[in-house]
Write a structure and sequence with these properties.
The longest helix has 18 residues. Helices cover 48% and strands 13% of the residues. Helix 1 packs parallel to helix 4 and helix 2 packs parallel to helix 3.
């Protein structure tokens, strides 16, 4: 499972690198991982993770993001929601199993955060 995820992630970033060369001047994509999480299936952020998500929101408060993307896990949605709320944006979910499709979406985006 983990090796498949790593393989998909590598393919995703390759798609972005090869397909975004002509777009790079006008685009900024920020990729972050979720913060500290509790244990169990689909856990939420810990208190410290929530605090770090808020610090991330503070960081992005002056960056004109056009979109915030997250996978459909509590920990990633909570990390993304802190930033989205700060900027008045919705959190748009993407499927990590459909990275090529998501890469095509990102090619059309300007300043985005992907959790």
């Amino acid at each position: 499972m983990r090796s498949n995820l790593l393989r998909l992630t590598a393919i995703f970033f390759c798609c972005l690198c090869f397909s975004a060369t002509s777009y790079a001047e006008d685009q900024r994509w920020y990729f972050v991982r979720h913060f500290e999480k509790m244990s169990g299936p689909d856990p939420e952020l810990t208190k410290q993770g929530t605090q770090r998500a808020q610090k991330l929101a503070d960081y992005f408060a002056q960056i004109p993001l056009t979109a915030v993307y997250s996978t459909n896990y509590h920990r990633t949605k909570q990390t993304a929601q802190a930033v989205a709320s700060e900027l008045g944006l919705p959190v748009t979910q993407y499927d990590p199993r459909q990275l090529a499709t998501f890469a095509e979406t990102l090619k059309l985006s300007t300043e985005v955060l992907v959790v």
